[in-house]
Design brief:
The chain is an alpha+beta fold. The chain contains 3 helices and 7 strands; from the N terminus they run βααββββββα. Helices cover 22% and strands 43% of the residues. The longest helix has 25 residues, at 129-153.
Length: 162
């Protein structure tokens, strides 16, 4: 039996943990980074920020054939745990790509001082061939989102210390 594929990405911000955490649950802020792509436009961002509630984020993207056609990518989440400002857990699915199977995403925000924090995402993709096939794309997607969060909401980044 194969073990689960878990994607982990982290990013540091020059902002308090509360501000970083709240960006995930505030529609006006979340629409600026959550599942946003370089060529897409977030058309819908609805969030019910309570356990049992969830989110719907629809990103309209151009098709790859170069004409003016577009398609909508619908991202759904159901909140399993909300522990402000440290931990957010949700079951996640992307309807557009033919599967409504959900996976588990954990967002953890660690305060690093009064004006600094580190956010870590752990996305359990499950096991099997599909999980391994989407592992790198998923990693790049989360990394891109965290970079977009920094550019859109927190322009000053703390240098990463190794």
């Amino acid at each position: 039996m194969s073990s689960d594929v878990v994607v982990r990405v982290s990013h540091r911000y020059s902002a308090p943990a509360e501000r970083v955490f709240d960006a995930w649950l505030t529609p006006g802020q979340a629409a600026r980074f959550l599942f946003r792509t370089r060529t897409g436009n977030v058309m819908q961002c609805e969030i019910t920020p309570e356990v049992g509630g969830g989110f719907t984020v629809t990103d309209r993207r151009p098709t790859s054939d170069g004409d003016e056609s577009v398609f909508d990518v619908v991202h759904l989440g159901k909140y399993v745990e909300i522990d402000r400002p440290r931990r957010l857990v949700f079951d996640f699915s992307v309807l557009t790509f033919g599967s409504d199977d959900s996976t588990r995403v954990t967002v953890e925000v660690q305060p690093l001082g009064p004006m600094a924090s580190e956010l870590t995402i752990s996305h359990n993709l499950g096991h099997g061939n599909h999980a391994r096939q989407v592992e790198e794309t998923t990693r790049k997607g989360w990394d891109s989102m965290l970079n977009t969060l920094e550019r859109e909401l927190f322009p000053r980044r703390i240098g990463v210390q190794l």
